[in-house]
Design a protein that fits this description.
The chain is an alpha/beta fold. It has three domains: 87 residues, no CATH class; 55 residues, no CATH class; 138 residues, Leucine-rich repeat, LRR (right-handed beta-alpha superhelix) (Alpha-Beta Horseshoe), CATH 3.80.10. Helix content is 35%, strand content 7%. The chain is built from eleven helices and eight strands. Strands 3-4-5-6-7-8 form a six-stranded parallel β-sheet, with no helix packed on it. It has a two-stranded antiparallel ribbon with strand order 1-2. Helix 6 runs antiparallel to helix 7.
């Protein structure tokens, strides 16, 4: 590493001279014989870091680390300039070697991935969104079994995909994998028919703890009956902005006895249907949102 900081500058005297003080520089230079900071730390400098013959193989990344332990302030980088040539690996190596390397990497990756324990692979898949999870499951039969395991749908938020949730997707896909679902969100979905809604909640049934149906304008009293008749262990229910429900549609909810949180913001529920619900859940009820009740 070659430091291009000018060698002719005396850092001790020049720093003091910049303050325009009437000072005996010779005496001060004798005192500060063991300076705690590198001389160049006081002034901007340019560093040249030669990389030629340092690494014997092509690389795509260069990492720069700065040691601030001997500086009186944190170094600020203005510009980094990389000088050299871009090496196209595909042109420097024969095509046969490249294809064999790609095949080896792909096979090696697949073999190592499959050899992972179930819990590790399950954890990796849990970080994928629903779309990526389905795409990943299409790579091979083994990963399909792991990605589409019912435990992957333990918590299912379909709100980001509201525009694509139809009766076909529910009956052809979600009914197969939602047998372990405890947290379900159908918020903003446009139109789910009664039969598809019934089948989905019937599959979840006793395991369902939280149900989010905010802004589902297709809901009617028949849908509410399905919730009351099949979701006995429901604890959190969100019916926010379901404006098509009339006050009498909420009556079946009194059959639920484990409600902890109820959101009926901007709905048509009234005291005649609300009080029986509160009375039957008074031991568990912690939160209720009654804002803008119509």
């Amino acid at each position: 590493m070659n430091d291009l900081f000018p060698n002719h500058i005396n850092t001790t005297t020049s720093a003091l001279q910049s303050l325009h003080l009437n000072t005996d520089y010779e005496q001060i230079s004798k005192i500060y014989t063991h300076h705690t900071y590198p001389p160049a730390a006081y002034f901007p400098r340019i560093l040249k870091i030669p990389l030629i013959n340092k690494i014997s193989f092509p690389r795509q990344h260069i990492r720069l680390e700065f040691d601030h332990c001997t500086a009186n302030y944190y170094i600020e980088i203005d510009t980094i300039s990389l000088c050299g040539q871009n090496l196209n690996i595909s042109q420097s190596l024969p095509k046969e070697i490249i294809s064999k390397q790609d095949e080896y990497i792909e096979l090696n990756f697949e073999n190592h991935l499959i050899k992972l324990p179930f819990d590790i692979l399950f954890l990796i898949c849990s970080y994928l969104d629903l779309y990526s999870l389905i795409q990943f499951s299409s790579t091979c039969h083994y990963l399909r079994q792991q990605c589409l395991h019912p435990l992957q749908f333990h918590s299912l938020n379909l709100q980001p995909y509201w525009n694509g949730i139809t009766n076909e997707t529910i009956e052809n896909f979600f009914l197969k994998y939602c047998i372990q679902t405890q947290y379900l969100s159908l918020s903003w979905t446009k139109s789910i028919e009664y039969l598809s809604f019934y089948k989905l909640l019937n599959i979840c049934s006793n395991k369902l703890i939280q149900l989010n149906l905010s802004c589902c304008q297709y809901l009617t009293g028949e849908y509410i009956k399905i919730i009351a008749n099949y979701c006995f262990n429901l604890e959190i229910l969100n019916l926010e902005n379901c404006s098509h429900l009339i006050n009498l549609d909420f009556i079946p909810l009194k059959n639920l006895h484990h409600i902890r949180s109820l959101n009926v913001y901007q709905t048509k529920i009234d005291y005649r249907t609300l009080l029986p619900l509160i009375d039957n859940n008074k031991e568990h009820l912690e939160h209720i949102n009654l804002g803008k009740i119509i």
